[in-house]
Amino acid sequence: MSTSEIPSSKVLPETHTVTASSPDLSSKTPVQNVCEQPAQPKPAYTAISQSRRRFILGIVTVAGIFGPLAGNIYLPALPVMARQFHKTETEINVTVTVFMVVFAFGPLVWSSFADWKGRRPLYIISILIYILANVLLAAVPANYGALIVLRVVQAFGSSAVVSLGAGTVADIPDLSDTDDLAISGATLWLVLVFALPETLRARVGNGSVYTDKSWLLLPPKLSSDLVPESERGPPPPKPTLKGYWKLFQYPPIGITCMNTAILYSSYFCIAIQLPSALGDVYHWSSSEVGAGYAVVGVAMVIGSICGGRFSDWRRKQSVQMHGESNIHPEARLNDQIWGLFLASAGLIMFGFFVEHALHPAATLISTFIVGFGMSWMFVASNAFLTLCLAQQAAGAFALGNMLRSPAAAVAAAIITPLVQKMGWGYCFLSLGLLNLLGIDLQEAVLESSVAIAEAEEILSFAEWAFGPRGLPALRVLAFGDFSHGDRYSGQQFLLRRAYPAWGFASKSVAGDTCDDTMRVPFRPADMADPSIWDGVLVEGARFLSACPGGGLMESPYEL
């Protein structure tokens, strides 16, 4: 995948040589692709009406709120709960830790059942589990063991939407407060049962079965009927830890997910410690502490809106300057840096403002800056992941969640002892500096993305040049600087034809497809292999080494 906002003329290395067996290619005509088939009309990607798609998106969005809501709703009351359950703050923070751990890996379990009966049954079952957990949390007497177990169940039930929600979108381009959560969840559950249609393409195709039917699903069924096999889409890929590891190994995705995980865990440190800061330092009541969380909540909303519009505006400007084809997904990562810098500054300010007991307004402003910067960064990250992996967006989002939630769990477990040992100022100074390192990592991402973009541009050109519509006389394709021995070996591409050009035309077509034209028509070549130069009119190795891309030593007199 291509990467940064640079014109195509600057994407490729300076020296690029095409070597053919005949210097005169003007008389050559490309070999026709014998596998070319008449274009067949394609059915609409989705037959579900736009208004109904918006309705589905609204339901999924509301369902997605309940997980983070359950994870954060009683943070303001953590000191009160510690007294009620006769536990230390560190012990009561364990309830946050176990929730975040289960919330991280729960989606892996839920998504593995996506091709069982579709997504609709999983929504219904998971929200029902979530409702039961909240009812029990509100009804069971204060018992620390029961609290831990029910928090695990609550997290498992609410985690399903993390993976199911992204898949659905892709299918269509204080403890006493838990009774309120149960009521809200029950309302949503009824909407899911009676109004949410199935969207899994492996069961309902493009959704044409719902065309001209009522939005109310009467009588309601747990799972939808299967459409004919010819109308179904492919089953969703099974999520595995190995698959997530492959995604993580791609540097832009891996570093982006690491940066968001570090920042989210840093924010979570503020979320965990804010009741202690406002209560112990500023002597606020529990209700006042709860109101203090509104500041960071408003900041997140504003940051998401501003960050999204700024990122879209920058992309629009870049498209006007360089053209749509030269704007790559990694260009969105440039917008992350501003949010990361703001959040880091807010973390440092928060620690020293609390330590020196400055006016509480200053402390709340610092939390606003952290929330604003974090949301700004997350918007840019999500935009990049969606554009970078359009076919695996759900997996990329799940990977981000698998890193963020455990990081937040660790933060919840260690932040109180860290503050006690290091003090407010130095503890959050360390967190701020840790996040600032993410800016250097982001620059490394952009640099590596340029190299990846160059490689993919070259391979795309080679696929055409050696292919049936390319240059039939082409034998060797050299790209890069081959002078000075192996000095620039990391920037060189030397490719040779994999089989004769006439092989395309001599193969017969079996059925509707031709496997031969699907083969990669080139393979890597070794400069030391003399056979690659057979039939070439120049001594290839010496010819390439005689064309440096630049001087071996820079001269102060060069202009």
The residue fraction in helices comes out at 55-70%
Q: From the alpha carbons, calculate the radius of gyration and give it in angstroms.
A: 29 Å
CATH superfamily of the largest domain: MFS general substrate transporter like domains
For the terminal residues, how far apart are their CA atoms? 35 Å
Corresponding CATH architecture of the largest domain: Up-down Bundle
Which residues sit in consecutive blocks of at least 5 with pLDDT less than 50? 1-36, 174-178, 502-518, 552-559
Order of helices and strands: EHHHHHHHHHHHHHHHHEEHEH
Portion of residues in beta strands equals under 5%
Please count the helical segments.
Answer: 18
| The CATH class of the largest domain | Mainly Alpha
Major sheet summary line? 4 strands, antiparallel
Coarse structural class: mainly alpha
The strand line-up of the biggest sheet is: 1-2-3-4
- DSSP summary, beta strand count: 4
The domain tally reads 3
CATH topology of the largest domain, by name, is: Growth Hormone, Chain: A
Mean pLDDT: 75
Bulk shape: globular
InterPro entries: MFS (IPR011701), MFS_trans_sf (IPR036259)
Region (Disordered): 1-32
Subcellular location: Membrane
Organism: Penicillium nalgiovense
